[in-house]
Amino acid sequence: MRKIGVEEELLLVHPDDGRPLALSGRVLADGHSHHLQAELQQEMIEIGSEPEEDLGALRASLLRHRRMADDRARAVGARTVAIASSPLPIEPHLTRDERYDWMAAHFGVTARRTMVCGCHVHVDVESREEGVAVLDRIRGWLPVLTALSADSPFHEGADTGYASYRSQIWSRWPSAGPLPVFGSVEALDAFERSLLSTGVLLDRGMLYFDTRLSSRYPTIEVRVADVCMDVEDTVTIAALTRALVQTAAAGWRSGDIPSPLPAAALRLASWRASAEGIGGSLVDPGTGEPSPARLVIDALLEHVGDALDESGDRERVASGVDGILRRGTGADRQRSVLSREGSLSAVMLDAAEITARGTH
């Protein structure tokens, strides 16, 4: 069974009105760990689960670290919120260290004002060769994960018209977005060297693509999801990601050819997922054409069905996806709360409560 690890970026907010607060330094005053770290802006922190095989254990790990982060935030007069973009206007405060200072100097407003929270899923691979094969074969399905996790309809006090506006903000980085098909480790290495040789990026850590193969651990990192308020949605996204990796690896071993869909077309598919979420159309990876979102989601479940059976996750994942389709994504909930309460502060505080208890 492949292990899964999850990183979640969280906002620190005022407990009364939901305003983001630049308090990460105080929250982390007792020291960083691989489970709790600073992020680009002082209004953010990142938590990380232990690598787990079992989805129940992964859920428990995420809840444990969410609560640890919230306890630390409460101790300094704040709350933590799993929301992918602040509904309230905010002037972010850059975390001051050498790396982030360099990024601000070179990327200007992109670094200074990027304050969005993603969910990054790490899945074991057996070798770099298998890792590249997986990168090549999961590309077309990643926009579906964006749609299912959408949790950022508001930004800077306005409805953006998107379900996942985080995706749009993140695409401003020059090294973000979908990858081409590589076919070999050598081709991936040459691709990364060519980008780093431009001098635009500080280092390999700034390769912000939708997926990447770790240089330190035998893992694939998938970076397309918004952070989800409901921890069960996070677990569903993580399980689908593992099933995609397992399906891709099995396809590579059996000689399946990766889809030749160009990166430019995948960027458009990602845009559609970001804009419409689960309520409109998604690009079907098989045809490259739009199809009702629910049909494409069903196709994803069919595509990874054998892998879900192997891991024993089919029933839980099917239930998790059904829950998202039935009640809506975090973006749908945020718009519903605004319609009912008439306040973006209420949207943020509602998200804080869901983050704390883990579920709707």
TrEMBL record:
Enzyme Commission number, as recorded: 6.3.2.2
Gene3D superfamilies attached to this UniProt entry: 3.30.590.20
Enzyme class: ligase
Gene Ontology biological process terms, A to Z: modified amino acid biosynthetic process
Keywords: ATP-binding, Ligase, Nucleotide-binding
Entry annotated with the keyword Ligase: yes
Reaction it catalyzes: L-cysteine + L-glutamate + ATP = gamma-L-glutamyl-L-cysteine + ADP + phosphate + H(+)
GO MF, any single term: ATP binding
InterPro entries reported in the protein's UniProt record: GCL_type2/YbdK_subfam (IPR050141), GCS2 (IPR006336), Gln_synth/guanido_kin_cat_dom (IPR014746), YbdK (IPR011793)
Pfam family, one: GCS2
NCBIfam families: gshA_cyan_rel, PRK13517.1-1
Family: Belongs to the glutamate--cysteine ligase type 2 family. YbdK subfamily.
Its biological purpose: ATP-dependent carboxylate-amine ligase which exhibits weak glutamate--cysteine ligase activity.
Protein name as it appears in the record: Putative glutamate--cysteine ligase 2
Lineage: Bacteria, Bacillati, Actinomycetota, Actinomycetes, Micrococcales
